[in-house]
């Protein structure tokens, strides 16, 4: 087994587990996803190099949005609170003796707010715009309303501002790693670091689906409507 194969295996199965978990988060109303789509998402989580995105694009935008929204809910109600809990746990144990923790807490708090903002913008503006494009293409919208819709927003506008929120999270690992050069890292830090790195990977996959699946599909609709 390669040195990292074990980690990859663990991270891989943890990521699969997290994909399934997010669909069950809304306990009263679990999200049902097409099995084939779920398999493709697992494949993408395993390896996104040369991924055949067109295989996912054949599903409806509605399904893709359902998955992405379940993911947003999972981040805000489960992942972020979990990571924050770990950080508080470390802070209560090492806060007095480890100066790094204050920096880390400040940084994480800022990061959390940025991520919440990012998700809220998508839920309030980006996704509703796409849903209206779908409605327009289906013929459920008067011509004047379509013209207004296309005049007030565009996919390009959103993609210009779709920042890679996962890159910022890298800073957390950098802070911890920088610190580890001087002292041995206490175990809870390492657990926290692992959690953060896994989440970073998770966000990266999420952004890939938004950028390489959702955006091209929505652009296709826009093109159709503008050509009418
Ligand atoms: Fe998102
Ligand atoms: Fe995003």
Automatic annotation (TrEMBL):
It comes from Persicitalea jodogahamensis. The lineage of its organism: Bacteria, Pseudomonadati, Bacteroidota, Cytophagia, Cytophagales. It comes from the Bacteria. It is found in: Cytoplasm. One of its GO terms (cellular component) is cytoplasm. This is Hemerythrin. Its main location: cytoplasm.
